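worker-03 picked up job from queue 'complexes'. Input manifest follows; two sequence lines, order preserved.
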Amino acid sequence: MNTQITLTGIIVFIERNVYLRFLLVAIVAFIIVSIGSLIELYIERKFWARIMSRYGPTEVGKFGTLQLIADAVKFLVKEDFSPAAADKTIYNLVPVFSVTVSFASLLAIPFDYTVASLFPSSLHPLTFVASNFDPSLLVAFGFFALEPLIVLFGGWAAGGKYTLIGGFRSAAQLISYEIPLVLSFLSVVVLAQSLNLFQIIQTQAHSWPFAVLAFPAFITFTVALLAELERTPFDLTEADTELVSGWNTEYGGTKFLLVYLSEYIRAFAGSAILVSLFLGGWLGPAPIPPLIWLFLKTIIVFTVLVWIRAAYPRVRIDQMLALGWRILIPVSAVWLILTPFVAHVAMMHGALA
Amino acid sequence: MAFVENIAILMFLFLGGALGFAAEFIPRLFTKPRPTPEKLAPFESGEDPVGTARIRFRIQYYIYAVAFVAFDIVVALAIPWAVGWGYVYWTPIILLLAVMLAVVGYYSAKGDLEWI
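worker-03 finished. Artifact:
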């Protein structure tokens, strides 16, 4: 009897069981997003500091790299308490919901395919990949768009005035920018004629990047994404000078850690969706593995978001809402109707397959 | 969408939920809560909190929420057209988006989108 356990044997066993297979996919996505969030946090502190002629963290570890670990340990060992005025059940469950929903929006991003193509002999891309199904973009966006509910619940349940105002501001901002966000990604859907993020990337292998073919949509999507991620110049929901920290003011310890983590997971997922929709996802000219391309592009997009954060002041709430309703919605709606004509012309000239 | 993808969604939700739950509730076993009235009070810049947090808030949030619900349905109806624009008539979706833009224009002109 052969009882030898080999790596290939384990992988074959996992691949035969659909539950284990997709759990493995989820674990792979979790590892990637954890590394991504750590890099994001480091860029956020160090790059932002350098733009402002500061040093950022320097003391813990070489170039302050271990600062994040020190912060995480501090959050984990802090005392846990709920404010007396809080609705305890909802208040304590909101961080868990927030991180779950943010993590689930990573489902559609083809990290699993890029990892599978690193191991062509053992992991079969067609069976291992979970992200290649038809309305994957819609599913990811559905999870992405649950954030206003979580923000409202969190702001209401924490029982502070700042959190309540921050929660309402967040919800108003998130719902105002959801319409331009959907209208802009729909012009990419028009070009690729698919709601599958996997196929949208594959279409770009034989065409110009959609950032060129749908340039106005690229701009409106980027602005709307900035607002959806609640990053400066649209960070009025966390405006430190007015609202302390917005809807998550009353959270501390591990609860704040989870809220903070889910914010960066959302930033990672949002940048990866932007890269997949407009910048060709895992495609790249040099013989670098697709995983590195997708990861690198995502991090570069995030770095640009940090750059925008360092360069622009915060807008006022009336300016923010006016930009969303009066400029982004009309521009993205008109461009959506024009996109089929662009697609037609591009197909005639071989710029679109 | 086949049944298999539902398993993938469930696995992502399960892993995210399990890790979140573990990260929030396991450290509680090792920390001892020592509540004081000051610690449990809501943060109001160091002052004693005035009244409850269930304050009145702007009615304008409501106007934006209603506008969002109406327009989001229009946008949701545009999704099938965006996938199959080569096979369906364009008139309905152009009319819908035109109506949406007209309503945004009317809202703007009337001043309901102004933040007072």
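worker-03 released lock.
Residues 118 and 229 of chain A are 31 Å apart (CA to CA).
The longest helix of chain A spans residues 18-51.
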